[in-house]
Design brief:
The complex is a heterodimer of chains A (1102) and B (380).
Chain A: E1 9-13, H1 25-39, E2 43-47, E3 63-65, H2 71-81, E4 85-87, H3 92-104, H4 107-111, E5 114-115, H5 120-127, H6 129-143, E6 147-148, E7 151-154, H7 157-167, E8 172-176, E9 186-188, H8 191-204, E10 210-214, E11 220-228, E12 234-242, E13 255-257, H9 264-281, E14 286-294, E15 301-307, H10 312-321, H11 325-333, E16 360-366, E17 387-393, H12 396-406, H13 423-430, H14 437-446, H15 451-458, H16 462-480, H17 486-494, H18 499-506, H19 510-519, E18 525-528, E19 542-546, E20 560-564, H20 575-590, E21 594-599, E22 614-617, H21 622-635, E23 638-642, H22 648-659, E24 664-665, H23 669-676, H24 678-688, E25 695-698, H25 701-711, E26 715-719, E27 729-731, H26 734-743, E28 753-757, E29 763-771, E30 776-784, E31 797-799, H27 806-823, E32 827-836, E33 839-846, H28 853-860, H29 864-872, H30 877-883, E34 901-907, E35 933-939, H31 942-954, E36 962-966, H32 972-984, E37 988-991, H33 993-1001, E38 1007-1008, H34 1024-1029, E39 1035-1038, H35 1047-1059, E40 1063-1064, H36 1067-1081, H37 1090-1101
Parallel strand pairs in A: 1-2, 1-4, 2-3, 4-5, 6-15, 19-22, 20-21, 20-23, 21-22, 23-24, 36-37, 36-39, 37-38, 39-40
Antiparallel strand pairs in A: 7-10, 8-9, 8-10, 11-12, 11-14, 12-13, 13-16, 14-15, 16-17, 18-19, 25-28, 26-27, 26-28, 29-30, 29-32, 30-31, 31-34, 32-33, 34-35
Helix pairs in contact in A: 1-11, 5-6, 6-9, 13-14, 15-16, 16-17, 18-19, 20-29, 23-24, 24-27, 25-26, 31-36, 32-36
Chain B: E1 12-17, E2 22-29, E3 33-41, H1 47-51, E4 59-63, E5 67-68, E6 87-90, E7 92-93, H2 106-112, E8 116-119, H3 123-133, E9 136-142, H4 149-158, H5 168-171, E10 177-179, E11 187-192, H6 199-205, E12 209-214, H7 220-225, E13 230-233, H8 244-256, E14 260-263, H9 265-274, E15 277-294, E16 300-312, E17 319-321, E18 324-332, E19 338-343, E20 348-351, H10 366-379
Parallel strand pairs in B: 3-4, 4-6, 5-7, 6-8, 11-12, 11-13, 13-14, 14-20
Antiparallel strand pairs in B: 1-2, 1-9, 2-8, 3-9, 10-12, 15-16, 15-18, 17-18, 18-19, 19-20
The chains are: A alpha/beta (1102), B alpha/beta (380).
Chain lengths: 1102, 380
């Protein structure tokens, strides 16, 4: 059945900013879909507020709208573009919810837009818990298998309490309806927990609905990924088994593909149920994900839930099998059937089959609890991980150990030296699922726990437990062997031991182990992910390493460039770096190189086998990278390895790669050192005559105190060589300084603490620039909205800068050039400046692609990462200008005066975390980065652009209503004008007594409300926190008082998060918001595509 | 659950292909020497069903899935009374089985039944080799005193080939037995056992059919002695070009116009009975993920396959046969191999793959309903 001819244009909705539970996997799926639809000759219109995505690159769609994904803005786009169809299943829950609300509001009908890929009824049946239970019941009637957990639907707290009795008591599972990533769900063991979780769940659910369920904690958990076409052909693409049993969100579980512990009979039951469900729900075309729990005692199967759309798991399944679910879903949506679509990898067989694997895939989650020390680290049914790594091996142990080292986190690999600890205590601790529980389990095994004990405490399947024992036994053998024989080493490698692990066990250095290994001729081979277990020849070089016999890397003629990706997403190193790597691959491929991508993050475009000529799905450790370089050097010429674009992960390997004779291209390891080492960088600045804030480096408290006394408090302290401001803090006094040094575990002479004078009230500026050794291309200048002291990744910023003049730009350009030249950059450099008292201080320089590269590229319509990749391999800026990759003249510092303003806003994950008492975590911004993603707002004036960025990140700014203001003393002066503006726009002000007093003296009326600490008034007057909870506040301005923050502010901000009320925590943000509100209240806000935007800029340049 | 010590058996083993390629690994299952035709199976589940499928008689099965034995062995998933493969090749055998139905480990079961296997070899390299060079003879040798490679290779080359092998009688029942209908009995079927899997009569019994399973040597008279409403020809091992006796019996059935259904070997026999040829595929279809299109509906089903031979019938036209018009009803979308035949003028059809599944998806179970419909039609 061929493609539909009645659809000429289609609107694709993306997933917006990266948040926990909805990450870069939707860039992968969305990009695939857009490319497919475009290749089919359709006009593709895309909306996505996230600039750090490949899908929002202007060449991916025909009209790309970086606008807020709200029904209001999407309607504007529809009105302008008049698409024939809307494809809502590839942009996660955000896209699905937006599409449903546009349908409900009649917008789709009004403009004659057809929903394709899923119909509203199917979406509701799949997502609505009650309807879905009915689906499962129908399925059971038809095929005799599958049931739902016994459950109870609730719309109020009274319902909830009744429900517990109906289910026979605690524990119960609470699941709010229509939330993404399981937000708001959890286990309640008693009434207190129940009231808290269910109360929040009722609020979070757009339909004020939660489901209570019988507990199936400890059961085995499985997922199936299915696809259906309009001819009712259904295939199961992949089965996934959770290593962690029921109770941990699948996004937070270690997961394994294919399922390891099911007999065929049991697997076929899941398959039959899955197929019956997709039919019963009525997903016409496309993919869906179904989760099952299986009772290990008797095989009873419970259907947990389904997602009638492409999901995180489907991205994982695509990478795990080589079956591109999103791409095929897009083709099915426009009318093809599975048997009409060829399997990309074999090119000869059709997509209407089920992939079979001859390897094992393990996914491990990456958490960021260190960024949220208050947060409860217990893993529950609410997803908390910020990223994941996937590894492939020819057996479980190999894949598993590779996955753990792919996490690139201290302690993520198993260690077999030192005292394991007390067995009983370790086992007790292992009951609670946490980040790194697996390491605890391994220590318990080392301490003598039996397999039965491990199972009893963790409910991890005995087969998996035995695999842990297998790993431990090999470690024992390694330790006990009189010498490291070839057989023993080969056996250890076969089970995934890294050179580093072997070295640790044997008391050898990692490089010594590697030398021995190479001398013994033990090297990995590379196998192909081919969807068919070698039944047919694979045409796509998608590789993974294994210590097996035969390699499948084919010789090649063209010189190759190996691009090192950025590994698992984490706070501070996310999708932005993947964006740069993908751009490098595209640009270098165009320039005639064979591109080779190395990465271990399944949620990315870089690990799509379509992106580069060759893909190695491998950990980004020195060992793994060296072996890939070796394999590729055996295959043909290697022009170089690019380390500059994947963030700190590959940058950190730079020197070691060079020391091992690997040709690192672009900025040299020595230059990287010159930028990252304080002393060396200080000399660069001195030579260029550039000032930096007074600073020093210390390895002890005494040293740090000495420096701080000299330069004066407050000081900014941080460890060296970190990304995302990890461990960075503004310290106001000596007591805190002492505590900081004491808490920092990683201080050593080679890793000192940096102590800087903190510049109060400075304007922070970010610059992205290209340098080829001769010429500087200033990519863009971003002015931060928040003052210095807020991590640049968490700060909103504007490009072009809104308060800097030509003189400032000139100074910035000169300083940037001085640093780029002094450091020796060949490619991208990002520099952070602070403008304080008219002195332009240099805060830091990063000789690599920065987080802001995609934003800058989109705001200025110039592909900086592509240019950087070319410069790394020897092209000059002059050549790139001549080629047209860079503008013929001018640069990002010289945008026309009427150029639109782009605003980037960070998106914070506050609502995901709770402390152990179940209270929210504080939302104050600081020098340590904690945002997970970003959005971009573009418009002709700053106010509108800022308003769009807020709408994209947190929901629209209110244009009227009640605003609550409570600010620190130092902010009181600067608050007065914006507060007056709020009143002028019709806002009613509320304030705590101190702030109200200041407002009143300035002629602004504000109602005094009670602080939380004062409690309710004698006549029942509510405190501000109660008012927020009751929905009586539309806008909150609350700046923290000095260090630590007082309880009051904390309660206010957490209440704001719980109620989703916009909460501004700096006065700069308030000033910007007022401009935004002003813009919203004056006239209509329009939408403009990036393509139109680029046309305008290009015309202005000519 | 028991703690097993790692690598209990580090007894060396060697796999030698008839073209001289060898793989060195460790003994698995019984220790000794074995020979057969090397074939690979790509199913990720269902090793117990595969091992006990009589169609694998005289074949050394290479599992492409690396982990085998994870769910142990139970008494319910056997497709016949014993393991039929002549040798078993796996990469990473389970040390501990884990499943609520498991009663023993696969390793022990193989050893108990004297099945020689090998583990720890690059099964993907071996599979790719078989894919490129075709299925071929192989030997597995295990033990601490192994002959030299030349001797092993010579032994492999002396082993009989699959082409021209007549094996049904070696695996089929010698006595007729009856599988009673589940629930109300509606029909009687005579099933000629050429290597039948236990699930096949079970699928019929579920539909109210009483199945009389007859030996491979059964005559037309034996078949009609049970007064069947329908006749069934099963799967089985060997080269269909040698199966002259079953072909003759089938012709007898076709002449009488009794509803007829064949699976796998039964499909090849129908092909031959209609006058089509059969041929050996380069490396066969063995797996549970094969896309087959039902050409009458256009729908695609994911199916279980285990066949090294196929019917040579024209895909694009209806053929005239001694029993009226015949057409190819099913085709494998991977390689356009004939996967099903049907007569247009008489109630007979067959498929090359396994609608009874076990192991494999249940997508093709409707074929048993089609068989029931034919019998229903005949009665009306």
């Amino acid at each position: 059945m061929p493609k539909r001819t009645d659809i000429q244009s289609v609107l694709v909705i993306g997933s917006g900013p990266i948040v926990i539970g909805q990450a870069a996997e939707f860039d992968y799926s969305g990009t695939q879909a857009c490319r497919v639809l475009k290749a089919e000759g359709l006009r593709v219109i895309l909306v996505n507020s996230n600039p750090a995505t490949i899908m929002t690159d202007p060449e991916i769609a025909d009209a790309t709208y970086v606008e807020p994904i709200t029904p209001e803005f999407v309607e504007k786009i529809i009105a302008k573009e008049r698409p024939d169809a809307l494809l809502p299943t590839l942009g996660g829950q955000t896209a699905l919810n937006t599409a449903i609300s546009m349908h409900d509001q009649g917008v789709l009908e009004k403009y004659g837009v057809e929903l394709i890929g899923a119909n509203v009824e199917a979406i509701n049946k799949g997502e609505d818990r009650d309807l879905f239970k009915g689906v499962v019941e129908e399925v059971r009637k038809k095929i005799g298998h599958g049931e739902s957990a016994r459950s109870y639907i609730c719309h109020s707290m009274d319902d909830v309490l009744k429900g517990v009795d109906a289910l026979g008591g605690y524990p119960v599972v609470v699941r709010p309806s229509f939330t993404m990533g399981g937000a708001g769900s959890g286990f309640a063991h008693d009434e207190e927990e129940l009231r808290r979780i269910a109360g929040q769940g009722l609020t979070l659910s757009p339909t004020t609905e939660v489901l209570l369920e019988e507990s199936i904690l400890g059961w085995k958990e499985y997922e199936l990924e299915l696809m259906r076409d309009k001819h009712d052909n259904v295939v199961v693409v992949c089965s996934i088994e959770n290593f962690d049993p029921m109770g941990v969100h699948t996004g937070d579980s270690i997961t394994v593909a294919p399922a390891m512990t099911l007999t065929d009979r049991e697997y076929q039951v899941l398959r039959d149920v899955g197929i019956a469900i997709i039919r019963e729900v009525g997903v016409d075309t496309g993919g869906c994900n179904i989760q099952f729990a299986v009772n290990p005692e008797d095989g009873r199967v419970i259907v947990i839930e389904m997602n009638p759309r492409v999901s995180r798991s489907s991205a994982l399944a695509s990478k795990a099998t080589g079956f591109p679910i999103a791409k095929i879903a897009a083709k099915l949506a426009v009318g093809y059937t599975l048997d009409e679509i060829p399997n990309d990898i074999t090119q000869e067989t059709p997509a209407s089959f089920e992939p079979t694997l001859d390897y094992v895939v393990v996914k491990a989650p990456r958490f960021a609890f260190e960024k949220f020390p208050q947060a409860d680290s217990t893993l529950t049914t609410t997803m908390k991980s910020v990223g994941e790594a996937m590894a492939i091996g020819r057996n479980f142990t190999e894949a598993f150990q590779k996955a753990l080292r792919s996490l690139e986190k201290k302690g993520s690999q198993f260690t077999f030296v030192g005292e394991p600890g007390d067995k009983a205590e370790l086992l007790r601790e292992a009951v609670r699922p946490t980040d790194g529980r697996i390491n605890l389990v391994m220590q318990a095994i080392r301490a003598g726990a039996t397999p039965e004990e491990v199972f009893a405490y963790t409910k991890i399947d005995p087969w998996f437990v035995d695999q842990l024992f297998l790993i431990k036994e090999i470690a024992d053998e390694l330790a006990a062997a009189p010498e490291l024989t070839a057989d023993l080493l080969a056996e250890a490698k076969r089970h995934g031991f890294s050179d580093q692990q072997v070295g640790e066990i044997r008391g050898l250095r990692e490089d010594v182990v590697r030398e021995v290994r190479h001398a013994l001729g033990i090297r990995p081979v590379y196998k192909t992910v081919d969807t068919c277990a070698a039944e047919f020849a694979a045409r796509t070089p998608y590789f993974y390493s294994s210590y097996d016999e035969e390699t499948e890397v084919a010789p090649r003629e063209k010189p190759a460039v190996i691009i090192l990706g950025s590994g698992p997403n984490r706070i501070g190193q996310g999708i932005e770096f993947d964006y740069s790597c993908v751009h490098a691959s595209f640009a270098l491929s165009d320039a005639g190189y064979e591109t080779v991508m190395v990465n271990c993050n399944p949620e990315t475009v870089s690990t799509d086998y379509d992106t580069s000529d060759r893909l190695y799905f491998e950990p980004l450790t020195l060992e793994d990278v060296l072996e890939i370089v070796h394999a590729e050097q055996q295959a043909g010429p290697v022009a170089g390895v690019v380390v500059q674009l994947g963030g700190q992960t590959p940058l950190g390997l730079s020197q070691a790669l060079k020391d091992n004779g690997v040709p690192v291209v672009g900025t040299s390891p020595e230059a990287i050192h010159a930028a990252e080492d304080r002393g060396a960088f200080g000399r660069v600045l001195a030579e260029a005559g550039l000032p930096a804030p007074k600073h020093g480096t210390a390895t002890t408290f005494a040293e740090a105190k000495g420096i701080a006394d000299e330069i004066g408090y407050p000081v900014l302290v941080r460890p060296s060589y970190v990304l995302g401001g990890r461990g960075m803090e503004i310290v106001y006094d000596e007591t805190r300084l002492e505590a900081y040094i004491a808490e920092s575990t990683e201080i050593s002479p080679s890793r000192p603490v940096l102590v800087d004078r903190f510049l109060d009230d400075a304007i922070e500026i970010d610059v992205d620039a290209l340098y080829d050794g001769e010429e500087l291309y200033l990519g863009g200048v971003m002015e931060h909205i928040e003052e210095a002291g807020i991590h640049s990744g968490d700060s909103a910023c504007a490009l072009p800068p809104i308060t800097l003049g030509g003189f400032d730009i000139k100074r910035l350009r000169a300083s940037t050039e001085g640093i780029a030249k002094g450091v020796g950059v060949r490619g991208l450099i990002n520099i952070q400046f602070a403008l304080a008292g008219d002195i332009l201080y240099v805060l830091e320089a990063n000789p690599r692609a920065s987080r802001t590269v995609p934003f800058t590229s989109k705001a200025t319509a110039v592909p900086l990462a592509k240019a950087a990749a070319r410069i790394s391999l020897g092209a000059t800026i002059a050549e790139l200008r001549a080629e047209g990759l860079l503008p013929a003249t001018g640069d990002g510092g010289e945008l026309p005066l009427d150029a639109p303003i782009s605003v980037k806003e960070a998106v914070m994950p506050w609502s995901r975390f709770r402390d152990i008492h179940g209270r929210g975590v504080d939302t104050v911004l600081g020098p340590e980065m904690r945002s997970t993603g970003e959005v971009m707002g573009i418009d002709s004036v700053f106010g509108t652009a800022y308003a769009k960025s807020q709408a994209g990140a947190y929901g629209p700014l209110p244009t009227k209503g009640r605003a609550f203001i409570s600010v620190a003393n130092r902010d009181k002066r600067s608050m007065i004008f914006p507060a007056r503006e709020l009143v002028a726009h019709g806002f009613e002000l509320m304030a705590t007594s101190g702030t109200a007093e200041v407002l009143k003296r300035n002629g602004i009326n504000a109602t005094v409300v009670r602080k939380q600490s004062e409690g309710p008034g004698p006549n029942g007057e509510k405190t501000i926190v109660q008012l927020i909870h009751d929905g009586g506040v539309d806008l909150i301005v609350n700046t923290p008082y000095g260090t630590g923050g007082r309880l009051d502010g904390y309660d206010i901000r957490t209440a704001a998060v719980a109620r989703s009320v916009p909460c501004l925590t700096t006065v700069q943000a308030l000033a910007a918001a007022v401009q935004g509100i002003d813009a919203l209240n004056h006239g209509d806000v329009g939408v403009r595509s990036l393509q139109e935007h680029a046309e305008f800029l290009t015309a202005a340049r000519d | 659950m028991t703690t097993s010590t790692r690598g209990v058996d580090r007894t060396p083993a060697v796999l030698v292909l008839e073209d001289g390629r060898t793989f060195r690994g460790r003994a698995y299952g019984a220790v000794g020497a074995t020979f057969g035709e090397a074939v690979f199976s790509t199913g990720m589940t269902g090793y117990q069903e595969t091992l006990t499928d009589p169609s694998y008689h005289r074949q050394v099965v290479v599992m492409t899935a690396p982990h085998v034995g994870n769910t142990g062995v139970n008494d319910e998933d056997m497709e016949s009374k014993k393991i039929w493969v002549s040798g078993y090749v796996v990469r990473d055998p389970a040390r501990v089985p884990s499943n609520w139905r498991s009663t023993r480990s696969l390793d022990d079961e193989l050893a108990a039944q004297g099945v020689v296997g090998i583990s720890g070899i690059d099964t993907r390299a071996l599979t790719r080799h078989l894919r490129e060079r075709g299925a071929m003879r192989v030997g597995i040798f295990s033990g601490h005193a192994l002959p030299d490679e030349g001797t092993m290779l010579a032994e492999v080359r002396q082993a009989p080939e699959m082409s021209g092998a007549d094996l049904s009688a070696e695996v089929a029942t010698t006595e007729t037995y009856v599988v009673p209908a589940i629930g109300e009995k509606k029909y009687t079927v005579a099933a000629v056992d050429l290597g039948i899997k236990g699930m096949t009569p079970h699928r019929m019994a579920e539909r109210g059919i009483e199945v009389h399973v007859l030996p491979a040597t059964a005559t037309v008279e034996d078949v009609y002695a049970v007064e069947p409403d329908g006749v069934f020809f099963s799967n089985g091992p060997g080269d269909p070009s040698t199966a002259d006796h079953p072909v003759a019996v089938m012709r007898g059935v076709l002449e009488r116009g009794t509803p007829l259904f064949g699976i796998c070997f039964g499909n090849q026999i129908l092909g031959r009975a209609l006058g089509f040829g059969t041929f050996k595929l380069k490396y066969g279809h063995r797996g549970i993920n094969q896309p087959v299109q039902d050409r009458t509906t256009g729908k695609v089903e994911v199916t279980a396959h285990n066949h090294g031979f196929a019917v040579d019938a024209p895909l694009e036209r209806v053929s005239d046969t001694p029993y009226g018009r015949a057409e190819v009803s099913h085709v494998c979308l991977n390689d356009n191999v004939v996967e099903g035949l049907q007569l247009l003028d008489r109630p007979a059809f067959s498929v090359q793959y396994h609608p009874e599944a076990a192991a494999g998806p249940h997508d093709a179970a409707y074929l048993f309903d089609r068989f029931v419909k034919l019998m229903e039609g005949q009665r009306a």
